[in-house]
Amino acid sequence: MSFHTDTIASRLALGAFTPEQAFLAAVELYRQDSLFAVPAKARAIIARRGADTPIVLLGRSDFGGNLVHALRGKARVLFVVDDFRAHRGEQFHGLDYISSDRFLEMARQDPDLIGVNACRFDYSRRFFDGLCRDRGISLANFEQIVRAFDLNAMLDHRVHDWGAVIATRTGQYQQLARRMADPYSVETLYSVLTFHLTCNPEWFLNVARPYSTLYVRSGLFAFDTGEKMVDCGASIGESTTALMHATEGTFARSWMIEPDRINVATLKGFMRKYAGTAQAAKLSLHAVAVGDSAGLAPFEHLGYHGGSVLPPTRAEACPEADYVAVERIDDIVDDAPTIIKMDIEGFELPALKGAERTIRAARPKLLVSAYHRSADLLDIPAWIDTIAPDYRIGLRHHTEDRWDSCLYFY
Q: Which of 86, 212, 240, 371 has its CA 20 to 30 A from that of 35?
């Protein structure tokens, strides 16, 4: 079957196709022209106007905040559209909010204006897509702008453009697909990868499961009574709470590992709720990060899901008080776990290496986030196979945005 740019980029008029066929077609298009997924109108404006390109962000999101900073000196980011905040006199990363009506008026006055849809959720994303499409306004999304302006060097690794890595390691992704234990995992893998090549969320939306299914409702295996979970990246207790619900309170243990001091305070309150109950003795809190060796690490304490170990480029500016202790999982657990869950902002592979003894001895189910770094989908299974090659491997995507693709080893 033959594909062309418009069908792969839009995910329309494809007819019958296999996920692998579409993936390979997207790889070939990317290799021929890495900007193939950037809308032609936006691409022409950016090529002609460069750093003078006028941009308005559509919707308030973390993605938009990344662009405000990354585009400085590369484009003119003017406003943020949010009808609910437009009349409050508030700002978003130093930019004024405007209404959608004001945005439409600006677009009529300047046909080079590009609306950038950086929304995280499908409903909001579709609203702004329709707003621009129906009026002929130039539109791009977060991923397309990152690629068009080559922003990886200015961005956190968690929002990088994966295109180059996928096009370079295509054969390894195909090998991983053959290693997957079920057809849904294969389709999910190719759909997530094709999204990263085409910048079109429709690819992963067709395989996405609700966020509430993360870890506990993968459809790959059932939880049992007596489960013992190492909860790496315990955050505010969502995963441990999910374990409680999934086992109807019959779990045996949760080691909650969380270095972010804001979350640690929340988790202490979480544990107080269970004081005097049978669950209290099952919970322990470890205010450390996990890695492949003990030590200290510079950390950004943001609370909820945002905190992370700082990259070397930002480590020098980190106050001593913000450093966190790093320990190996092998040195934390005092019993054989049945589950190790990890969502630690791109440091999953070092943390797994620090659990090698535990994995070899206990062979727990591994629930590992694999969306923070472009190579994690390859490098994590490859390392696991060196110590436990008999694991079955599954993959699920659990949100309606680019986050929460999770590898399951069971």
A: 371
Q: What is the pTM of this model?
A: 0.96
Residue 160 is predicted with a pLDDT of 97
Is residue 16 exposed (0-12), middle (13-18) or buried (19+ Cβ within 10 Å)?
A: exposed
CB atoms within 10 A of CB 311: 12
Q: How does strand 295-297 pair with strand 324-327?
A: antiparallel
d(CA 179, CA 237): 32
What was the pLDDT predicted at 93? 96
Two structure tokens written together for 29: 């298009």
- Can you list the pairs that 67-70 forms with residues at least 24 positions away whose Cβ atoms lie under 8 Å? 67/116, 67/118, 67/142, 67/145, 67/146, 67/151, 68/92, 68/93, 68/94, 68/95, 69/93, 69/154, 70/146, 70/149, 70/151, 70/154, 70/155
pLDDT of residue 312: 87
| 200, 125 Cβ separation under 8 angstroms | no
Element (H, E) at 245: helix 238-246
Cα dist from 70 to 90, 98, 108, 145, 313, whole Å: 21, 21, 27, 10, 15
**Rounded (10°) CA dihedral 123, 129, 133, 134:** 30
What is the pLDDT at residue 361?
98
Query: For the chain, what is the radius of gyration of the CA atoms?
Result: 22
Tokens representing residue 156 in the block: 């956190």
Query: How many Cα atoms occupy the beta-carbon half-sphere of 204 within 13 Å?
Result: 27
Which segments of the chain have a pLDDT < 50?
A: none
Give the H or E element holding residue 21: helix 19-32
In this prediction, residue 4 carries a pLDDT of 86
Pairing verdict, β 393-397 and 308-309: unpaired
Place of tokens 């909650």: 256
Residue with tokens 């690490």: 297
Give me the pLDDT at residue 311, please: 87
By three-state DSSP, how is residue 100 classified? helix
Both tokens assigned to 104: 């439409």
CA distance linking residue 285 with residue 237, whole number of Å: 10
Region class of 199: left (phi > 0), else alpha (psi between -120 and 50), else beta: left
